[in-house]
Design goal:
The structure is a single chain. This protein has 645 residues and is an alpha/beta fold. Helix content is 22%, strand content 24%. A six-stranded mixed beta sheet has the order 16-15-17-20-21-22, sandwiched between helices. The protein has a four-stranded antiparallel beta sheet with strand order 4-10-6-7, with no helix packed on it. The model has no long low-confidence stretch (mean pLDDT 92).
Length: 645
């Protein structure tokens, strides 16, 4: 299988000569060397790159560079700059070169081999004489000749970092680091976030704030806004710090480099439009953009990020501090040691939404969501899952719409969508997030659709940004794919992460759940030359966490069983002399970790005479709610009056 067919021709000779003919599948880099007859090199040498197969649906190539090396007499022909190679001299440690007709007045020569040598040579008239040292590897030495008279003067030369000193990242030596990678524009907000994450309330993390602009000179050869800067820095930290960094939280908007409408002159990326370039504060990696790819493949990983990663696509300090306020409220509620239904029961609530444009799609998505529901309601999460499914072309039933909004405002821990979507939302819509009233009770939203997680677009905000960046309402994190979502892979991914959250690794952070999900699903995927690998790779690396990777989705260390006065009722409600038995019903709510461990429920009945009787029932665990029924005789002879339970 292939989807690219490329030919290379040398057209400066007659007839034209084909140098190369190949087919490839997917993304590939080709580096080729060819030998040509010396007499075929002309003042203008033409190399033709030809996309040869019109039957392919998409066949685009980009030429990185073309270099022609040829023998040349030592004569510059009045040129002032030139580059040439000098072969290894087997007889002497140096090669004496005399080059005629140098056109400059003040030469400067850099000779690059195993070392770099700088010399002005000896200029006699127009003849430039050089001594070129041998390279210890016996490879040719490349000479670059310049004319200092024509050098461009530096008008804005300033010290790096304002001090002339690079940051020594090796000296930081942070153990189990919580890395915040941000832009100078957002440093005030990032420092406030770092202060919280360093505090006891924020987890007492070893936080280090890294300014992305400082990485470009050290890790991406001075190319600003190059994604390799972040990747190579993380690789450096993984190799040199005392232990592996725990989290990478990127604070700052990213805009894709690629122009999605390049040939139509629209929708330019950050490398083709100055305004879009300015919008991109902390670049992501690759195309489609993938924050996971910043560290995927490092430290023995494959598609899974070596450091649990999330991003806040903020463009202002106000957005950072607004999100910090939401995080503070969210985690304060988790840390509250008082377990009552009023302040904890919302944490057990989950909402699911099934979309689809046809009956078969709706049935398939409902099947997937029911599978997630079974896992979430089981041990250990013990959730109460309410599902809403499309049964027509309408987004949502009006009655359900009202119920959905009430449940959101009362608080839910997770919202899971499965259906069609776009950067603007889902085909199973809820109310405008601006109308939500869920302050302090922010869910994780998992969106199984196309494009809804694309936080790397210029200009208009995605639904992920709308829901996450809004202050005092919305979601605490949004997990969805940036581009196409393939149904089978979306289900496999979400089924795995739901299992990891609710069962396998209950109690870990969302960033760690993402790592485990990718580790579990990447086994057997062959990325190179396999068209079957495109859907899983696109989904697994494209599922983007918009939010803090260290948050936990309302988990608890232990079960927390609660019975409130409203949870006790007796049947029948009216007991007469004709009533021989009655049922005392206790609704037990587990506000903490679901458990399948048996325990004993005791009911003590105090008769009007003061005599007590105790009844016991063994309950085989409670994940969320269970009703325990005590069948008791009335005992008319001693029960007349007020009975206390």
């Amino acid at each position: 299988d292939y989807n690219h067919h490329t030919q290379i021709f040398h057209t400066s000779q007659t007839p034209s000569r084909m140098l190369f003919d190949t087919t490839t599948l997917g993304y590939d880099m080709i580096r080729k060397y060819f030998s040509l007859p010396a007499d075929s090199i002309k003042p203008i040498t033409n190399i033709l790159y030809h996309v040869n197969d019109d039957t392919l649906s998409s066949d685009i190539i980009n030429v990185g560079s073309t270099t022609v090396e040829y023998p040349h007499i030592p004569d510059f022909g009045s040129a002032t700059t030139a580059s040439f190679k000098v072969d290894y001299n087997t007889a002497q440690p140096f090669t004496n070169y005399s080059i005629a007709n140098y056109g400059g007045a003040s030469p400067l020569v850099y000779m690059v081999g195993d070392s770099v040598w700088r010399t002005s040579g000896q200029l006699t008239g127009s003849t430039l004489k050089l001594l070129v040292p041998n390279d210890v590897s016996t490879k040719p030495v490349t000479c670059h000749v310049f004319n200092t008279v024509t050098n461009i003067p530096l008008s804005n030369f300033k010290p790096v970092n304002g001090t002339g000193m690079f940051t020594d990242y090796a000296a930081l030596g942070v153990d189990s680091a919580f890395i915040i990678l941000t832009h100078p524009k957002l440093l005030t907000g990032a420092n406030a976030y770092a202060a919280y994450r360093s505090s006891p309330a924020g987890g007492q993390n070893n936080v280090v704030v890294i300014i992305v602009n400082e990485l470009y000179d050290q890790f991406s050869a001075g190319i600003y806004k190059h994604s390799l800067a972040a990747r190579r820095f993380c690789d450096f930290a993984l190799d040199n710090w005392p232990s592996k960094p725990k989290y990478l939280f990127i604070i700052g908007k990213s805009v894709r480099e690629a122009s999605e409408g390049y040939y139509s002159g629209t929708n330019y990326g950050s490398r083709h439009d100055a305004g879009v370039y300015a919008e991109s504060l902390v670049p992501s990696f690759g195309y489609p953009c993938s924050d996971n790819r910043i560290t995927a493949g490092l430290n023995g990983t494959y598609l899974d990020p070596a450091i649990a990663t999330g991003r806040l696509a903020a463009v202002s300090n106000a957005q950072v501090t607004d999100y910090l306020a939401k995080i503070t409220e969210f985690e304060l509620a988790q840390q509250d040691p008082i377990y009552t239904k009023a302040n904890k029961e919302w944490m057990k609530q989950v909402q699911e939404f099934g979309g689809g444009s046809t009956a078969s799609e709706q049935a398939q998505f409902q099947f997937f969501l029911n599978s997630y529901k079974a896992k979430l309601e089981d041990t250990s999460y013990g959730a109460s899952v309410k599902a809403y499914y499309k049964t027509s072309s309408d987004p949502i039933d009006p009655v359900d719409f009202q119920e959905v909004n009430e449940r959101i405002n009362n608080g839910v821990s997770m919202m899971i969508f499965f259906g069609h979507g776009s950067i603007a939302g889902f085909d199973q819509n809820v109310d405008d997030v601006n109308n939500w009233q869920n302050q302090g009770k922010y869910p994780l939203l998992i969106g199984n659709s196309c494009f809804s997680g694309d936080i790397h677009q210029p200009g208009a905000l995605s639904v992920s940004e709308d829901f996450t960046l809004i202050p005092n309402k919305g979601v605490i994190a949004f997990l969805s794919t940036v581009k196409q979502g393939f149904v089978v892979e979306l289900n496999r991914y979400t089924d795995s992460i739901v299992r990891d959250i609710s069962q396998t690794n209950y109690g870990l952070s969302i960033g760690q759940h993402i790592q485990h999900t990718l580790q579990a699903n990447q086994v057997g995927i062959v990325i190179v030359d396999s068209i079957n690998a495109i859907p899983p790779e696109e989904v697994y690396t494209g599922m983007t966490l918009h939010g803090d990777p260290s948050i936990k989705i309302n988990t608890h260390q232990y079960p927390e069983l609660v019975i409130e006065s409203s949870d006790v009722f007796i049947e029948p409600a009216n007991i007469t002399l004709a009533t021989d038995t009655m049922d005392v019903n206790l609704i037990i709510t587990n506000l903490g970790r679901g458990t399948n461990q048996p325990f004993t429920a005791n009911l003590t009945r105090q008769f009007p005479s003061g005599v007590d009787s105790t009844y016991s029932i063994v309950v085989n665990g409670v994940n969320y709610k269970d009703t325990v029924v005590f069948h008791l005789p009335v005992y008319h002879g001693i029960a007349y009056g007020i009975n206390h339970f």
